[in-house]
Design a protein that fits this description.
Distance between the termini: 16 Å
Oligomer: single chain
Largest sheet: 6 strands, parallel
Number of strands: 15
Bound molecules: 3-phosphoglyceric acid
Structural class: alpha/beta
Order of helices and strands: EHEHEHEHHEHEHEHEHHEEEEHEHEHEHH
């Protein structure tokens, strides 16, 4: 059992609100390429109307291109809320604490990218998270903690398990809705379970795939994107290195998964490569060393769509290619279309696919759409996520007090 905003009188309370506004960033323009997660944050901010709200989020990973400040998010949030936001270029310094101390009822502060603080890039046991400099410096300024970053519910970072281990804490609107909808879907989901897996967070996904298969939630895994390339390398069908982080380790893991579950995985037979911006389709056997795979090829798309058409449940996470560019959007668009037509219960997950669904006007044709990626996959495996566990413990503590 977890508490919700309705369990608290939030008026005038200094509220730490952890949201997940980690958005896709266009690697060329560096603009926010999909604002769905910021839109979601507005729902809980509005529900906390008379509180003093300190909004906090991460964006990207340190060292990656999408690791940015929250300045652009602040402008989008302000526009969506139609309310003034104070964007503070600080997380745990005196600039942030001075501003928080001076807040008035109804005011909203957005802190800078939480991952500017080194500790937020590491996972901790709850008590250790509460003892981090981040939590120790900030926690005394807050009355309540509201956790609403469902897409990062699988991370035991200080902002996710540290504050809620000390403060009266509850779930925000998104976490509340995700849990309710997902629990409902999990009970009615029918076999065969098809998982369409793409995107670039390969290390995270490999462990999750294994759990999904073992829990009977993945009878067929259709691979796309960078993770598809990793499996093709593991099969020896792509000969040259892909140039991704910890490549040999992930390829070895993929190899072992294929060996353990030989009938579960499908990889592309043909792809579209980027030749100076143009789409060139070719058989995987004809790939050359420096070819940049940007999409699925037509034969693969047809095969994947056939499997989807006879599925009982389809879960899609991560785009099938570089769909932000029109000539490489064919795979993602076609698979989403086929999902929207199928009789299967459909779940689409992740920031990029949310953006794609909106772009292709398919939002109303999917059973459950979540902006979460890795967290959602782990939730479907039945694993207890650190954020949910922390909220459950907070509810037990609260019940003992009242
Ligand atoms: C996500 O997009 O999956 C969440 O924001 C978590 O981000 P992370 O994988 O960088 O921790």
């Amino acid at each position: 059992m977890i508490l919700t905003i309705d369990d608290f009188d939030v008026r005038n309370k200094v509220t730490f609100l952890r949201v997940d506004m980690n958005c896709p960033i266009d690697p060329i323009t560096m603009e926010i390429a999909g604002t769905k997660r910021i839109e979601e944050a507005t729902e809980t901010i509005n529900a906390l109307n008379d509180a003093k709200i300190v909004v906090a989020s991460h964006q990207g990973r340190v060292g990656n291109k999408d690791y940015t400040s929250m300045k652009k998010h602040s402008a989008v949030l302000e526009k969506l809320l139609g309310k003034k936001i104070q964007y503070v270029e600080d997380v745990i310094g005196t600039l942030a604490s001075d501003k928080i101390k001076k807040m008035k009822k109804g005011e909203i502060i957005l802190l800078d990218n939480l991952r500017l603080c080194a500790e937020e890039n590491y996972e901790f046991a709850p008590n250790d998270a509460s003892n981090t400099i981040m939590v120790q410096r900030l926690v005394k300024l807050f009355d309540i903690c509201v956790l609403d970053s469902f897409p990062s519910a699988h991370r035991s970072h200080p902002s996710i398990v540290g504050f809620s281990n000390i403060l009266p804490s509850c779930a925000g609107k998104i976490v509340e809705r995700e849990i309710k909808n997902l629990n409902k879907i999990i009970t009615v989901a029918k076999a065969p379970h098809v998982v369409v897996l793409g995107g670039s967070k390969v290390i995270d996904r490999l462990e999750a795939i294994k759990l999904l298969i073992n829990n009977g939630r993945a009878d067929h895994v259709l691979l796309t994107g960078v993770i598809g390339n990793v499996f093709m390398r593991a099969q020896g069908r792509i000969k040259s290195p892909l140039g991704i982080k910890r490549e040999e380790e992930v390829v070895a893991k993929a190899h072992s998964l294929i060996g353990t579950y030989p009938d579960v995985f499908s990889t592309p037979v043909d792809v579209a490569i980027n030749k100076e911006g143009d789409r060139v389709e070719l058989d995987v056997r004809d790939l050359n060393k420096y070819d940049e795979i940007n999409d699925l090829g037509p034969k693969t798309i047809e095969y994947y769509n056939k499997i989807i058409s006879s599925a009982g449940t389809v879960f899609m996470s991560g785009p099938a290619g570089f769909f932000e560019r029109d000539n490489f959007s064919v795979g993602t668009k076609s698979i989403l279309n086929s999902l929207s037509r199928s009789m299967a219960t459909s779940i689409v997950s992740g920031g990029h696919l949310n953006y794609a669904l909106k772009k292709y006007k398919l939002v109303n044709k999917i059973n459950h759409i979540s902006t979460a990626g890795g967290a959602l996959i782990l939730y479907l495996t039945g694993k207890k996520l650190p954020m949910i566990e922390s909220l459950e413990n907070a509810a037990i503590r609260y019940k003992k007090q009242v």
